[in-house]
Write a structure and sequence with these properties.
Length: about 220
């Protein structure tokens, strides 16, 4: 059963040391209100899984600037110089994952798959420590699933049952991440009554959503 709570209450559910998936692409579709609440709660030592670390003054980027993460798993860090600075200083562990591989690892985590094979990264530093499997004489990396303790998701519209709609490019990683976390907290721009969303429009069904926060 999905519950509607405040951002402050949501932040209390994100514990020190937790792994947290955060939706968004350069903060487009990022749950800024939830991120601000987690920052206000002084939560630390997080493992953050996201497409990127946005910008120093926006969204997940603020979490990097305030040194709330011990590790990040992302596809790139170039738009936030603070991430590279902390990485080079040994203050944060950075696992860089090709963007398509990151999305598929999250999908595997959400759909109960044991991993997948990809040629991306073969013969590069991405392959270090990973199993290489040959199929029809072609080499592939075995990439393992990604899951997290908590997902912070941004939706355009939610009904009170937790069914979600995303808007245009703000959709990005949010639907995948909503399937791959033990606890899913959604910041919705609009929360409507049950039945107000056409079932054909639902992009994330309520079964994946635990809490809603009015954005």
């Amino acid at each position: 059963m999905t519950s509607i709570i405040s951002a402050a209450q949501a932040a209390e559910l994100v514990k020190d040391g937790a792994s947290v998936m955060i939706g968004g692409f350069l903060n487009c579709g990022g749950p800024e209100l939830l991120i601000e609440a987690v920052l206000a709660n002084n939560t630390r030592n997080l493992t953050l899984i996201a497409n990127d670390t946005a910008f120093p003054d926006k969204g997940i980027g603020k979490m990097i600037v305030e040194k709330r993460a011990k590790k990040i798993i992302v596809s790139h860090i170039g738009t936030n110089p603070e991430t590279g600075k902390q990485m080079n200083a040994g203050e944060i562990e950075v696992e860089l994952v090709p963007q398509g591989t990151l999305a598929e690892r999250i999908r595997c985590g959400g759909f109960g798959l044991g991993g997948f094979l990809t040629p991306t990264g073969v013969g590069t530093p991405v392959a270090e420590g990973k199993e290489i499997i040959a199929v029809n004489n072609k080499k592939y990396l075995l990439e393992i699933p990604l899951r997290a303790d908590v997902g912070l998701i941004k939706a355009y519209k939610a009904d009170k049952a937790g069914n979600l709609i995303y808007r245009r490019s703000a959709r990005n990683f949010n639907p995948l991440m909503a399937t791959a976390c033990d606890l899913v907290i959604v910041e919705a721009e609009e929360i409507v009554e049950i039945g107000a969303i056409d079932p054909d429009q639902v992009m994330t069904p309520s079964i994946f959503v635990h809490y809603l926060v009015q954005g």
